[in-house]
Specification:
three-stranded mixed β-sheet; single chain; 2 helices; 6 strands; 34% strand; alpha+beta; 91 residues; three-stranded antiparallel β-sheet
Length: 91
């Protein structure tokens, strides 16, 4: 089992090196980073988190770009704005 894990890690490193050599970059947003619709795809909104509204709260999958061209967006959850939270409550 240990040899299998070592082989998978070596394959991942080799793949990352080839990506970098050919200009393919991983888009890995960090929590709290502003949501960018050109690089991120929002799948859901997160209520009452520790992050300001309109920022990335959760990262599901990284995205990839070839130089400046988007190959696939990062799939993220976005912090919900307080106005949207209060407007949904019945009053």
């Amino acid at each position: 089992m240990q040899n299998l894990l070592a082989g998978v890690a070596a394959t991942e490193r080799a793949l990352r090196d080839v990506f970098m050599k050919h200009g393919i970059q991983k888009i890995q947003p960090s929590p709290g980073e502003p949501f960018d619709p050109h690089r991120h795809q929002a799948l859901f909104e997160v209520e009452g988190g520790d992050f300001p509204p309109g920022t990335v709260a959760e990262i599901l999958l990284p995205g990839y770009a070839y130089h400046e061209r988007l190959l696939g967006p990062a799939l993220v959850g976005v912090a919900k704005s307080l106005a949207a939270q209060t407007s949904e409550r019945p009053g």
